[in-house]
What we know:
By secondary structure, the chain is mainly alpha-helical.
Amino acid sequence: MPSEALKSPGFVFNSALCQTTLSNLYSDDYLTAEAVFSTFEEEIDGYIGTLRDSFAKRNLPEFSGIVHKIKPVYNYVGLTNIYERLLSVENNCKMLKSLDSMMEDYDFIISETDKFRPLIKNELERLIRYNAENSNL
């Protein structure tokens, strides 16, 4: 029997996350995935706080800057729906003079982030367990 047939299928991310993106980013490097998911968990509250503050103050340059900064973070954890919305928001910010027309986008980003936080935390916990159990392979 070829040794390839004995190989474990590896970690399988939750189907709510973009499998193609995660596969392209990490392949079978689950230690890197763990580090990125951990960074997301550690930093997302600060990013969202800045996003909330800049939107509340209707500070378009600050809002646009934080959107640009956090956009890839969502892609790195497979939340491509939020990433794509942030990409659209970033492009729209370049043409706007105020944030008044961005309420729907803002609400989407906040609500989707809140919705997926438990899933990302769970995926991080699963990655930690998986990596600990497979560290000697």
